[in-house]
Design goal:
The complex is a heterodimer. By secondary structure, chain A is mostly helical. Chain A has a single domain, classed as ABC transporter involved in vitamin B12 uptake, BtuC (Orthogonal Bundle), CATH 1.10.3470. Helices cover 72% and strands 1% of the residues of chain A. Chain A has a two-stranded antiparallel ribbon with strand order 1-2. Chain B has three domains: 189 residues, P-loop containing nucleotide triphosphate hydrolases (Rossmann fold, 3-Layer(aba) Sandwich); 67 residues, no CATH class; 252 residues, P-loop containing nucleotide triphosphate hydrolases (Rossmann fold), CATH 3.40.50. Chain B has 20 helices and 22 strands. Chain B has a six-stranded mixed sheet with strand order 6-7-8-3-9-10, with helices on both faces. Chain B has a six-stranded mixed sheet with strand order 16-19-20-13-21-22, sandwiched between helices. A four-stranded antiparallel sheet of chain B has the order 2-1-4-5, covered by helices on one side. In chain B, helix 16 runs parallel beside helix 17. The longest helix of chain B is centred in the middle third of the chain and has 16 residues. The chains are: A mainly alpha, B alpha/beta. The interface between A and B is medium-sized, with 27 and 37 residues.
Chain lengths: 309, 533
């Protein structure tokens, strides 16, 4: 019981950065833009948050800086793949490589420095619920913020006029164009908003999960988030479930290592990624069998108003 | 119902639009009156679509001005055109398939941040009732038939307050019955003081519906005529760029327009077959599934006979594409029998069918018919890799031989392009189709599968393709000709089979078939019930 409660607390902690990143991915992919730069943006967010925290000792400044810088970096991706219409995949991968390089370059000098990680606050009453109480309601502010982000994303995407436009951008940009909506504008700002959320996820690594800087602090979790967007069927509420499932897998891996189970630590480290492949395969097969089309139909397609010959 | 005294709602003055190398619109003058159906007639490439896109705000003209109720307007985005009451119903529907009717209709409109769907549903319902459009706001687009989707498009522009509707070849995708329903809607709209710019090249509906007709040719206005003062023959002549009045028989005979040619019998039409030709290919109770795994062919039985064209009528999406894919060896069938010259074929593959002498003209010519990035000559290699003339030592491509062959075929099939080294993707639809036809008919010895071979082509190209397929039949090929143009099938086919929901509803000889009867069968009525009492 104690083990499970602790594992669940860790699952939510590990799942939170995944959740931010997945939500960011959902927003931009709903608008039709693929962002494979998630891993890079997480690293940029983590680095900026850590450096700002060292300099200012203010969590708010650190979080704000991570969000803004991640947003600005995402704009480069948007400029390249939306304005200049380069390949979205290639541009996203370049963003990841950039983020990895940047965090390695500046992170080198940060090794050994420490900061005070975010405190947990128990929500009175709610945190007393057995098993899930401590996991969900005895956490730091960023976790609570992530709940708000899930809810806000869901309401905006599925209940609002703006959300209808965003989802239509991802389904059929040509229709939106004939309706007089700026495909480029909506797609660009959705991509940037998504990038900012991913930056927030990055900040979580350095402000909450760690108290000191380690190289490659995100450990490839950005790639899990890329898969989670698909696993969540591009839906914010399902993103929540998916992020915690993977958070649990990561938490379990750490716990099992501590318990000294006679399995190679490398095998345990592999588990979340194995789960990623497994889940993607089964989800895809199931959807194909049922003939469900959940992926935004215009995902990854560049858009130019056609002038035919 | 004369609209001659009605106020002018739209005026185009000297509209000119250039694309690189093309003068798409050349000083076009046009006006539209309130409550009028004004038809724009012209071949493909005459500049109709460009002109409509300018009116709808998608393109800005290089010269000229647009006036709406006397006021000069300039549209730099479609939104500005919409705000001036102009609504365009595109030929290819502009609908988000995964969203509901209501979501599609309100897309892009200003209003409360949070959607009040109940109120929106009610508004759409009222609009739908007022114009008799029968649209259910809560259904998903992908559940709707083509005719229903088109009505959603009409509601969409009306909901935005459109007074001027542009309908771009609206009946091209409809059954005859759905077209009739659309005509009623159009008349209903004009009675309620809406104006309609109607693009069509079906002469019958142009003559039945229009108040006035403007004919475009090569980007210029040839004439604007009152419907009462003109005739299909005259309109067709203007469409082809003849400025003289073609009242003499000699000239009328030259017009390669279906509606006109129907009466004249000097194109290669089907011979009066009395004896039954030997069967080359036969399907018995064949079933197959589509890409999503749903049943799409539900027991098809048919025969393709030597020296005969079997026409296949039907609204697209009733299994035609999958049927030709099975016949061409691209798609496996789940049950039934496929006999090729009395030999049952079990495991289908494309190479085997090519070697048996089957030619295939796919429906989507750009995607499946050609490799757009390769040259014309190189495209003759496709589906012809076994031809040793094109290779040295069966391995290296013999460029000289291939290009020589390409030149010969371009000449023989009247492919208009700078050279055989031109990339196929740069060709117009008609020339692209000629390349495909040249490749397939040159190789095929037994069977030709032609899926919508003339769709979207202009009159010249259409006529060429029809003649060429007719000649292939005369050489003894068994031809399957799938088309949505019933006039074309009645003109070219020896027998006509009607497909609906994966079944062959019935097969008629050309002599006994009529447009009305086929039209009814296309909605699923069997031969017996489709015969008018």
């Amino acid at each position: 019981m104690e083990f499970l409660t602790q594992a669940l607390v860790a699952a939510v902690e590990m799942g939170t950065p995944l959740l931010f990143a997945t939500l960011g991915g959902v927003i931009s992919e709903r608008a039709g833009v693929i962002n494979l730069g998630m891993e890079g943006l997480l690293l940029v967010g983590a680095l900026v948050a850590f450096v700002t925290m060292l300099g200012t000792q203010s969590y708010l400044a650190a979080i704000g800086a991570a969000v803004v810088v991640a947003g600005v970096v995402t704009m480069v991706h948007g400029l390249v793949c939306l304005v200049l219409r380069a390949n979205q995949i290639a541009s996203g991968l370049a963003l990841t490589l950039f983020g990895t390089g940047l965090s390695g370059l500046f992170g080198d000098r940060l090794i050994g420095k420490t900061i005070e990680p975010l405190d947990s606050h128990a929500l009175p009453g709610l945190s007393q619920i057995p098993l899930i109480g401590p996991a969900l309601f005895h956490q730091d502010v960023l976790v609570y913020l992530s709940y708000g982000c899930v809810l806000a994303t869901w309401v905006v995407l599925y209940k609002s006029r703006l959300g209808l436009t965003i989802r239509s951008m991802g389904e059929n940009p040509e229709v939106c164009d004939t309706m007089g909506l700026s495909v480029l504008g909506y797609r660009f700002w959705c991509l940037v908003a998504g990038g900012m959320l991913i930056g927030l996820g990055g900040a979580y690594f350095s402000l909450a999960l760690n108290s000191y800087w380690v190289d490659n602090i995100t450990a490839g979790r950005g790639w899990i988030a890329v898969a989670l967007v698909i696993f969540a069927f591009w839906h914010p509420l399902k993103a929540l479930a998916g992020a915690y499932l993977f958070g649990f897998a990561i938490a379990l891996e750490l716990r099992l290592q501590l318990l000294g189970i006679g399995l190679s630590p490398y095998f345990l480290k592999m588990l979340p990624y194995l789960l990623t492949i497994l889940v993607l395969t089964t989800v895809t097969i199931r959807n194909q069998r049922r003939g469900i089309q959940v992926m935004p139909a215009g995902l990854g397609q560049g858009f130019v108003r056609g002038e035919k010959y | 119902m004369s609209t001659a005294s009605a106020p002018t709602v739209l005026e185009l003055r000297e509209i000119t639009k250039r694309f690189p190398g093309v003068l798409a619109n050349d000083h076009i003058n046009l006006d539209l009156r309130e409550g009028e159906i004004h038809t724009i007639l012209g071949e493909n490439g005459a500049g109709k679509s460009t002109l409509m896109s300018i009116i709808a705000g998608l393109y800005t003209p290089d010269e000229g001005e647009i006036r709406i109720r006397g006021q000069v307007v300039q549209f730099s985005t479609p939104r500005e055109a919409i705000s001036q009451g102009i609504g365009m119903v595109f030929q290819h529907f502009m609908l988000v398939r995964n969203h509901t009717v209501a979501e599609n209709i309100i897309l892009g409109l200003p209003g409360s941040a949070v959607l009040d769907l109940e109120k929106i549903h009610q508004e759409i319902q009222e609009l739908s009732d007022r114009y008799d459009l029968h649209v259910d706001p809560e259904r998903n687009i992908h559940e709707l038939s083509v005719g229903e989707q088109q009505r959603v498009e009409i509601v969409k522009v009306l909901y935005r307050g459109a007074r001027l509707l542009i309908l771009d070849e609206p009946t091209a995708v409809l059954t005859p019955q759905e077209s009739e329903a659309l005509y009623r809607i159009m008349r209903n709209l004009t009675q309620q003081e809406h104006s309609i710019l109607f693009i069509s090249h079906k002469m019958k509906e142009v003559m039945a519906l229009s108040d006035r007709v403007t004919v475009l040719n090569q980007g210029r206005v040839m004439a604007t005529l009152q419907r009462e003062d003109t005739s299909p023959e005259q309109l067709a002549a203007f469409m082809l760029g003849h400025t003289t009045n073609p009242t003499t028989d000699a000239e009328a005979n030259e017009l390669p327009c279906t509606e006109v040619v129907e009466e004249e019998a000097d194109v290669p039409t089907a011979p009066e077959a009395v004896t039954v030709n030997p069967t080359i290919l036969e399907l018995r109770d064949v079933h197959a599934v589509n890409d999503l795994g749903h049943p799409v062919l539900k027991g098809i039985s048919l025969e393709l006979r030597e020296n005969e064209i079997l026409g296949m009528a039907g609204v697209s999406g009733n299994g035609q594409r999958e049927l030709t894919e099975v016949l061409a060896g691209l798609r496996t069938y789940t049950s039934g029998t496929y006999l090729f010259e009395q030999t049952p074929l079990q495991r289908l593959n494309v190479e085997q069918m090519i070697n048996r002498g089957v030619g295939y003209i796919p429906e989507d010519r750009k995607k499946f018919g050609v490799a757009a990035g390769l040259t014309i000559a190189q495209n003759f290699l496709l589906r012809n890799f076994g031809n040793s003339n094109f290779f040295w030592k069966r391995f290296l491509i013999n460029r000289g031989a291939l290009q020589r062959y390409g030149r010969e075929k371009m000449e023989a099939f009247d492919v208009r392009a700078p050279s055989e080294k031109t990339r196929v993707g740069l060709l117009s639809g008609g020339n692209m189709q000629k390349v495909i036809l040249a490749r397939e008919t040159s190789r095929a010895r037994r069977v030709l599968l032609a899926c919508q071979p003339t769709r979207g082509l202009d009159i010249h190209a259409t006529q060429f393709i029809r003649d060429e397929i007719g000649r292939a039949r005369d050489r003894g090929l068994a031809v399957l000709w799938i088309s949505e143009d019933l006039d074309e099938l009645l003109l070219m086919a020896d027998r006509i089979a009607v497909i609906f929901d994966g079944h062959i509803v019935g097969t008629l000889s050309r002599q006994e078939a009529t447009v009305e009867q086929i039209g009814r069968m296309m909605t699923g009525m069997t031969l017996e019930t489709a015969v008018p009492a």
